[in-house]
Every structure is written in C-alpha cells, then in structure tokens.
Amino acid sequence: MSVYTELTLQEMQDFTKQFALGDLNSFQGVDAGVENTTYFVSFETTETVLQIFEEQGFDEIPFFIELNRRLSEDGVPVATPIANQHGDRLFTIKNKPAALFTRIQGSTLDPISMNACQQIGVALGQMHAATQHYHDLTRENHRWNTWWESNVERVLDLVPKAHQETLKDQVSRSKLFVDSAQMLPTGIIHGDLFCDNALFHKGKLAGIIDFYNACNGCLLFDLAVTINDWCSDPTGRLQADKTEALMSGYHQHRPLIADEIDCWPLAVETAALRFWMLRLVALARKREGGPQAPPHVKDPNDFLEILVARRLDPQCQLISR
Questions:
Q1: Which CATH superfamily is domain 114-318 in?
Q2: Is the overall model pTM greater than 0.90, yes or no?
Q3: Are the C-beta atoms of residues 243 and 319 closer than 8 Å to each other?
C-alpha cells in the first residue's frame, strides 16, 4: 500500500468518470506498505480506495476481485469492488491492473480485546462457511510445504543454533499435517489474517483487508494462523480468554469436526512454521541484496517462540469446548 504509480489530477479524473459516484472531490496517495500503489479517492457520494497492482498480473487479479465481491454479497465485512457503468471491476492504469473498492472506515486495534477476538472469530467462521461453496474460484497456495521445504538450506544459518534441529524436525512434522489436511474441510482461506489486517470502528469490526495471500486451502490451518497471532501472549502461549472468545465466535458459523480437533497440534505448529519461514526467507533476501530485497524484516524469532510453545503444549482444550 504505497505509491509507486503516480497519477495526476487529470489522469485520476479520466479514470473515475466511468463510475456513477458523482464528481471527484479529492484523492491522496497512501504511503504505507510495500506491495501495491494505494490511493484514497473521495467522491460526492462515497469514499473509495484505488489499488494499482504492482506485482500481480492481469491473470491473478480477477480472483481477488471476485472473492471480495462474493464475500461482500455473503455478508462478510470486506471491501467491495466497485463496478463501472458497464459492470467492469478490473481496469488498466498505466499498463497495470487496478481496482476500485469501497473504503472501510476504521483502524487497527492495540491492545487486542476479548471482544475483538470474538468478532474476528465470527467473521472468519462466516468467511469459511461461505468459501467452502466457491467451487469455481481457485488459486494455488504458493507457500505450502514445497515452498518451505525448498528454503530450509537457504535460511538454516539464520536460525539460532539451538533451534536448527527444531526447524528440520518441524518441517517433517508439518509434512504429516499437509498429508492430513487433504482430508479436512477446505475452502478459500485468507492466509494472513493478522491483527493488522482487520479494521475496527468504535469497537466494532468494520472490515477484513489484504486478501492477497488468499488461496484454496485447509480451513483449520487458516484458523490456526489467526489464533496464533490474535491470541498469543508475549511468551508465545495462547491466552485462554482470547482463544475461547475467538472460538465461540467462529463456532457460530462453522463448528469444528472431530478430525480437525485431532489435527489441532500439528495445525498450530505448521501455522507458526509458515510465518517463521516467511520471515527467515525475507531476511535471507535482504542479505542477498538486489532490487527484490525487502527494506524491513520483522523478527523471525517471534514465531520461533510461538512454535516452541505450541510444540510443548498446543492447548487443545481451548478450541474443543
């Protein structure tokens, strides 16, 4: 969400005149994030967000637009892609794919409350219940076991020596989960529903954002990713009150089946491994340099702590009540 593609007033007016939203009042580039160009665009009748996609191609973007459209229709709080007067939702700006979305009015929360956890659980359960039926909408998970297995040697020297064997062992353990996941409920998952991808307004969940890691996958894995971030204390252990609040919301729309509860230990371990590896790979890319090197890398050890805590005690009782 940064500004890599600069637009003049005339260029923005030429683009926005195709929408039945009234006159363009103002627009402002958003200087945050690292992947896409984002503008807040204000019309007479509504507030919107223009995204120009800098990395994904025209073949990828329709998936994200259609996913957000369907979720919005199914009542999940997400940004709705706006159609022009001809019904189009995918556009070209300076030879790059672009889309206009409704703007979610809200901000991230810190600290995270039990009530916020309950609300995000409701929304995630609602999303999972809906996407189980989006059979014609598909996208491969590009950061599943083949990805992390292929990057072990690349990052091993970046891992504290005391936990290099932990990494190798966890890759083997998570392969067991990958095999089991094929038999568990699947649908389209968010893949990255961390606290900073949910906006709240006056204590109420206003919307879930950043679906660019969404793909077909195991619903339990997506739940584990969310709980690992929303419900972990500073030592990596799950906080009982927040976890139970999130699960109570989730169960309103999609109660877990017995096989999912049985797979919970490996699910939360694998969710921690996935993001430990993501940050380790980012650190390796920064070390290697070049134009694709990320300028900032979050501490990989945050997820090492979560992984160690889950391996010691997955706290299954918190999700099975």
A1: Aminoglycoside phosphotransferase (APH), C-terminal lobe (3.90.1200.10)
A2: yes
A3: yes
